Amino acid sequence: MFVLLIIAGLGVVTLLVILFAPHIRRYAAGGVCKSTARLDGKTVLITGANTGIGKETALDLAIRGARVIMACRDVEKGEEAAASIRATYSEAKVEVRELDLADTCSIRAFAQKFLREVNHLHILINNAGVMMCPYTKTIDGFEMHIGVNHLGHFLLTYLLIGLLKRSAPARIVVVSSLAHNFGWIRFHDLHSQGSYNSGLAYCQSKLANVLFARELARRLKGTNVTVNSVHPGTVNSDLTRHSTLMMILFTVFSVFLKTPQEGAQTSIYCAVAEELHSVSGKHFSDCAPAFVAPQGRSEGTACKLWDVSCELLGIDWN
Ligand SMILES: NC(=O)C1=CN([C@@H]2O[C@H](COP(=O)(O)OP(=O)(O)OC[C@H]3O[C@@H](n4cnc5c(N)ncnc54)[C@H](OP(=O)(O)O)[C@@H]3O)[C@@H](O)[C@H]2O)C=CC1
Ligand SMILES: CC1=C(/C=C/C(C)=C/C=C/C(C)=C/C=O)C(C)(C)CCC1
User: Fold this and answer.
1) GO terms for molecular function, please (predicted)?
2) From residue 147, how far is each of 35, 168, 309, 313 by CA, in Å?
3) What spacing in Å lies between the alpha carbon of 222 and ligand 1's midpoint?
């Protein structure tokens, strides 16, 4: 009897989901960037642009007329993505360059070539990310989440900040997550050598993204280079590739999740919206200002993280 009731309940829920699917989809899609701003003559750099949110961001900004440089660790995958963008929009000015954020030599080589060959950079989107991977270290010995999601982008931004300032007005968008709410910066064990939890390591790195954006905004005051962080929403992308459970959940509940195109809206909004021209150091979700957890608002933590990041990367960024 009990089993029959459960089966009947599940049946009713499934039927309701099917019936209301269009409404659920519309609600799940979240905010849309309504700006029609053109980017002709502007240069954009997007990390992790071969798939998911990064690829959709690249497509949108290319349609607005920008020259879009897609920084990808796998050039072959990057070229496939660029080809599919060109297939959608034949005039897209997209190009692929190799960048592995898990290797500081690759980041330095990328930046060196970039500075030699590209004269302007108006929009930098720090989008690439890994989530819940098994314990791994980057080439330089950093735990993978903090290494790629935070330190890799920190170094990249440091190397390109001069160009961004010279190209001002310029914008930096840091793709963080709601997951920053559940993170702490574990200064005593930043690389999780004592204990490792893949979920918490991801949350720590996403909190680091929020703190980096706020601290960088403070330091960039008066330069006409702004920086904001973003939560894209819960997006059905390859991000779940390291967690079978998340992959199953995201597939089963896909109707409730954003598509990568919907997930790209807030990044696009922060990159182009006219009303944000002088807004800096803020966090956005669904193309609107969003809540930042108390640990993401701590100036002391942001400052300490900045110093620790410089020390780990062997750079002097004041
Ligand atoms: N999907 C979601 O629900 C949410 C996503 N986010 C954030 O959005 C951003 C984009 O994620 P999403 O599009 O969903 O995920 P995807 O997994 O689809 O895309 C991640 C991108 O990052 C790239 N990447 C991973 N490691 C490296 C590296 N070492 N060097 C260079 N590039 C790398 C991937 O390249 P490759 O394909 O070669 O692995 C891929 O292009 C991430 O920062 C993520 O944390 C935040 C909240 C929710
Ligand atoms: C609990 C739960 C879900 C929600 C998952 C969420 C909310 C995931 C958020 C992931 C983020 C924010 C990742 C990147 O930063 C699903 C899948 C709807 C299925 C039903 C159970």
Assistant:
1) all-trans-retinol dehydrogenase (NADP+) activity
2) 34, 28, 10, 10
3) 31
Among candidate residues 27, 135, 196, 202, the one labeled active-site is: 202
pTM over 0.90: yes
Nearest C-alpha to atom 2 of ligand 1 is from which residue? 235
Q: How far apart are CA 83 and CA 81, in angstroms?
A: 5
Q: Residue 5 falls within a domain, yes or no?
A: no
Residue 234's CATH number = 3.40.50.720
Number of domains in the chain: 1
What range does the domain containing 248 cover? 31-313
Residue 120 lies in a domain: yes
Is the CB of residue 182 below 6 angstroms from any atom belonging to ligand 2?
no
The ipTM of this complex is 0.96
Residue 94 in any domain: the answer is yes
CA–CA gap between residue 80 and residue 194 (Å, rounded): 40
To the query of whether residue 202 is one of the catalytic residues in this protein, the response is yes
Which tens digits make up the pLDDT trace of 34-92?
999 999 999 999 999 999 999 999 999 999 999 999 999 999 999 999 999 999 999 99
Q: What is the pLDDT of residues 211-243, one digit of tens each?
A: 999 999 999 999 999 999 999 999 999 999 999
